[in-house]
# Entry
Amino acid sequence: MNQDQLKGKWKQLTGETKKKWSKLTDDDLQHVDGNKEKLIGKIQERYGKSREDAEREVNAWEDDNK
# Structure
């Protein structure tokens, strides 16, 4: 899923995002607003993960939600 597709589907995907990463708040998701880099950063922040781990999770999640 490219950045434009993610941004376009973001409102639909926020529920799935909250299921996957329950520590993300509504404010976090509003801030991310479909931006993959921001999502990776928020996951790093909330879960204490490395950038590589967060990016791997987001990529897998994107593949599951195509």
